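Hey, sorry to bother you again with one of my protein questions. I've been puzzling over a protein and I'd love to understand its fold better. Take your time with it, there's no hurry, and the full record follows here:
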Amino acid sequence: MVGILPGLISEEQAGFVKDRSIMENILLTQEIVTDMRLRTKAGPNVVIKLDLMKAYDRLSWLFLTKVLRKMGFSERFIRLGSKARGSIVSDTFILAAEALSRGLNSLHTNLYFCGFGMPKWSPKINHLTNADDTIIFSSSDATSLRLIMEILQVYENASG
C-alpha cells in the first residue's frame, strides 16, 4: 500500500505517506498560528487539535470497508485486509483519517464556511494531519464552527 497511498491521500496528511514530511506540517502549523496572532484585522480565529489515537482503537471494520470501496479497492483486497487487520494498522489510520480529511476539505465549497483569515494568495488550508493528529483552522464565526462540528459528528457516527 505504501506505493499507492500518496495518490489516494490528501495533501494535508503527512504521517506514514511516502515522500511526505511530518516536519512540513509542523512548520506550517507554526506559521499559521503565528500569522493568526499577527493578523488581527481578519478577526478572531480558532485552532482545534484532535488526537484520534483512542478513537482508532474502536474503528468499525464496516466503516473501513466502506472507505476502501469508495477509494476503489477490490473486494478481494478488502477480504484479505479483514483477515490481516493487525498488520495494516498504520494504513488503517491513514485511510480512516482520509475520510475525515475529505469531509473537512468539503467545507471549502460551502458558501457559509468562513475559513481563518489568511492572505488571499495563500492556499486554502483548513486542517493539517499527521497520522492520528488533526489540527483544524477556522474563523470563530458560529456558522463555520457549527459546520466543523457537523463534519466531526458525521465522522464519529460513521467510524464507530
